[in-house]
Specification:
Elements: H1 10-20, H2 25-44, H3 52-56, E1 60-63, E2 90-96, E3 105-107, E4 109-113, E5 116-117, E6 123-129, E7 148-151, E8 164-170, E9 185-191, H4 196-210, E10 217-223, H5 229-235, E11 238-244, E12 247-253, H6 260-266, E13 272-276, E14 283-284, H7 292-295, E15 300-301, E16 309-313, H8 314-321, E17 342-345, E18 355-361, E19 371-380, H9 400-406, E20 418-426, E21 440-443, E22 447-453
Parallel strand pairs: 7-11, 16-17
Antiparallel strand pairs: 1-8, 2-3, 2-17, 4-5, 4-21, 6-7, 6-13, 8-9, 9-10, 11-12, 12-13, 14-15, 16-20, 18-19, 18-22, 19-20
């Protein structure tokens, strides 16, 4: 049989030998060349579906500062709260929270309305509560007897801290904004990936678009402008009563726009709703607030807890922070835990608690007009600041325990911790203008002129 087996030809043997003699460079260089060509294309034009934010960016501008631009990058350093003799305190940062208890948006400038900063606390999430469990698919009839919508915050659902809010306003040619915004949108995003290969692809797409540390997200869109009657009917929105603390207001439920996955992510077992405050159903503020007879209008709020604005002094925060026990889960107190609108620096610790009325003057800002406020009362804190705003993880006891121990300073709120103060806007032309036409402006860099001082005693709701 050996005689009939063909022997390899010299030519084929030589070709195989030559192929085996090629080193790794023969294959490596073409591969590197191909990757060098493809990677920039993939980075610039990632093969992933366009998002709602991508579409809005064609015609709208996103409001807010990025992390690198933030005026709070070094707020926990002693120099950030230093007091200079003879110098006035100044406005260090501005923050709005369009959706209550979700991520905030830091600004350099904001319009001030009778309800507070523009776009602040327009929306709140709520759950349908009753003496018994309410299915997420409950219909209108099932919601009647004993059922009530009740607002939710990070106090119950800490993961709300991870729900991001992006605000888009229409782009205009000259860089200015209309006196009243129309056509603005909110894009809400929360961490979510589906099961299986679909979830893997979502994660890969997120990293291609937003970087290695990005995670897959689900997003949905909300109109900022209050819908017309026709739009309400078309989109399936409903006017319903919602309870916020002891108040019950009628607001517009946009729950049909909220993905079911968000309820799962937050851990809400009941039906989840998302309410938009009705401009005709604002809550009037009394208690420690000034009266219409004094300032020309009665202060109102949307879904703020009690007053239109909240101010935090970095000097006070750093002094309190120095007394709070630290551990592996709490390195320092981020000012964002306290969800303030106005963050000031350059004032002695707790000096703001003696302010009765203040005026922000242009200072180092680009504005040419002032903005005045009545300081209504101290801010009585709940347990919400226990939640880390960067992770949505709740600390077991701090800073709530230290607030109650160290900052039990207001005779009107015994055994409660206080930090920061509440404000109501003042307008010079309040008596001669319609309330909806009242406005002023704030910008980072403005200086603070304390107009009057006095004692504060908190009045409970």
């Amino acid at each position: 049989m050996e005689a009939y087996r063909p022997s390899p030809s010299a030519g084929s043997t030589a070709g195989l030998s030559a192929l085996l003699d090629f080193d790794a460079t023969f294959f490596f260089l073409p591969l590197v060349t191909l990757l060098g060509f493809l990677l920039p294309i993939i980075y610039l034009f990632p093969p992933v579906p366009a998002t709602k934010a991508d579409a809005l960016q064609q015609t709208h501008d996103r409001l807010g500062l990025g992390r690198a631009e933030s005026n709070l990058r070094t707020h926990n350093r002693p120099a950030a709260a230093a007091v200079t003799p003879g110098a006035s305190a100044k406005l260090q940062a501005l923050t709005i929270y369009p959706v209550k208890s979700c991520r905030g948006i830091e600004l350099t400038r904001s319009r001030v309305l009778p309800t507070g900063l523009e776009f602040d606390r327009l929306f709140t999430f709520a759950q349908l509560k009753s003496p018994f469990s309410v299915s997420s698919t409950a219909n209108a009839a099932e919601k009647e007897d004993g059922h009530v919508w009740e607002f939710i915050t990070q106090r119950q659902f800490a993961r709300l801290a991870n729900v991001k809010v992006d605000l888009y306003v229409p782009r205009v040619e000259d860089g200015t904004r209309a006196d009243k915004d129309t056509g603005s949108w909110i894009v809400m995003r929360f961490p979510w990936r589906d099961l299986g290969i679909r979830g893997v692809l979502q994660t890969i797409a997120a990293k291609l678009v937003r970087g290695w540390y990005a995670e897959a997200e689900r997003e949905f869109l909300l109109p900022v402008e209050f819908p017309t009657k026709a739009e309400i009917e078309q989109r399936g929105y409903e006017f319903e009563k919602v309870k916020i603390w002891k108040d019950v207001v009628t607001a517009l439920n946009l729950g049909v726009d909220v993905p079911e996955e968000l309820r799962s992510y937050l851990g809400v077992s009941n039906k989840l709703g998302l309410f938009r405050i009705d401009p005709l159903g604002l809550r009037q503020v009394f208690r420690c607030a000034p009266r219409k007879e004094e300032i020309g209008y009665q202060p109102t709020v949307g879904f703020q807890d009690a007053y239109p604005l909240h101010l935090m002094n970095l000097g006070s925060l750093q002094d309190f922070d120095s007394q709070v026990p630290k551990d592996g889960d709490l390195k320092y107190l981020d000012v964002r835990r306290f969800r303030s609108n106005l963050i000031v620096t350059g004032a002695p610790a707790y000096d703001e608690e003696s302010w009765q009325s203040i005026r922000f003057t242009p200072g180092a800002s680009t504005l040419t007009s002032d903005a005045s406020f009545q300081v209504s009362c101290r801010t009585v804190r709940c347990k919400l600041p226990n939640v880390d705003p960067a992770t949505g993880i709740r600390h077991r006891v701090e800073p709530d325990r230290s607030l109650r121990k160290i900052r039990d300073v207001d005779p009107g709120a015994p055994k409660m911790g206080c930090l920061g103060v509440q404000l109501c806007p003042l307008f010079e032309d309040a008596e001669s203008c319609e309330t909806e036409d009242l406005r002023s402006w704030l910008e980072v860099g403005m200086t603070i002129d304390v107009q009057s001082r006095g004692e504060h005693v908190y009045i409970k709701q």
